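All the exercises in this workshop are built on plain-text protein records. A record pairs a protein's sequence with a compact description of its fold. Read left to right, the backbone structure tokens trace the chain's path through space. Once this layout is familiar, the rest of the handout is easier to follow. Here is such a record, shown just as it appears in the course material:
>
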Amino acid sequence: MHSLDDTIVAVASPPGGAARGIVRLSGPGLRDCLERCFRPDPFVPLTSIQRPTVVPGFVFLHGFASPAPCDLYLWPGRRSYTGQPVAEIHTIGSLPLLEAVMRAACSGGARPASPGEFTLRAFLAGRIDLTQAEAVLGVIDATESAELDAALVQLAGGLAEPLRQLRSALLDVLAHLEAGFDFADEDLPFITSGELLRQIDDSAKQVRRLLDKMAFRSEAVESVRVVLIGRPNAGKSSLFNALLQRSGAIVSAQPGTTRDYLTAELEIEGLKCQLIDTAGMEAIVADLDDASIAAAAQSMTQAQSRRADVTVLCLEAGRPLDDWEREQLARFDTPNRIVVQTKVDLRSSHFPVGEGRGEGILLPASILPTSSHTGHGLHQLKEAICTVAHATAGPPTAVVAGTAVRCSESLRLAAASLDLARDAITSGLGEELIAAEVRVALIELGKVAGTVYTNDLLDRIFSRFCIGK
């Protein structure tokens, strides 16, 4: 681990041209470094600045005839992100210029920062805990809105605060137990067995709630499975292509064109979907070879339908229902199902919403008329997919993937120790054993929050960061 006495510098803005780029510095020698490479305009001694301030001026660049104009954002005290004096030099976002500013800062006494070193200093200064540090990486690495939301919640203390409260409660329990040891001869009850049991049970429940969050996060799928089902030639493949806005499936007037299933990635309002076009459901033909192929295709369709997060039932407008479609409509109240009418542009009199369609079967009021040719109803279908996906999803998580992987084992060990503490209470095995198990639980929770850590652990976490963060 590098010395915290070094002044570090790095380009903090993304690569590429921009109207503004940022070079970030942090360290106890910050003012000395800035005085060697930065000139305020109008001149103000940097030593006289005691509060966070924006200072316009110029940065001197080696090998260039003129200094570069910039704004210096200065946090002169220790109430900064890193707990040290921090500065940001904001100038034009040209990579050669930003690299020249970095070289000027290094000539002034700074050194290039390692990946994640600014966030590491924030952690070591107690500005954030380890779960929040990992959330910074979660924000950087997020590729969809759900991941970003989880990372932002965790960064705001969504995991740090429950951990703080849990550790505080267990520290109170341990303090009561150890006070009883100090005054064992006085026979003073600092905490009753009933109260001790209640607090241990409450703490164990909180640990298991955190474990549930971790388990859900680690098992969460990366995208929502949206499966199109229907009779042969019901317009599934055309709808598949229309939603993708490209040709992904073969479209033909001949029924049964799709024998396998096709998949493609689709993003709808930030929701990543795996769109799946399946073979049409039909009666098995007499020819043995064709029957075998059809049976295999329909078996795949049924398997995909069972695994679907959202099922889209396609009914061709104007065509009578068959037995399979009636069976599907009878199960329409399944929460993850959407029913659409396809090919409405080809039918002069397609069935309106809510009207009967054979043997008393009513089309559901929420059916969506669509046309793959004209695009009618496609926007409403995408909205419905998002609505159903969000409504049927598991509980929202506020844990980024890296935290879930790192912390699950510690939380399991903490829960096991609290279970042993509870057994010791109910069996009357003595407060020394109870206190020992509570200490183990506190150590494991400390590993999660980062109050207990090793240099190897910190290196493993922060080496995954990009430079400048």
Q: What stands out?
A: The chain is about 45% helix and 15% strand. Confidence is low (pLDDT under 50) at residues 283-289, 352-359.
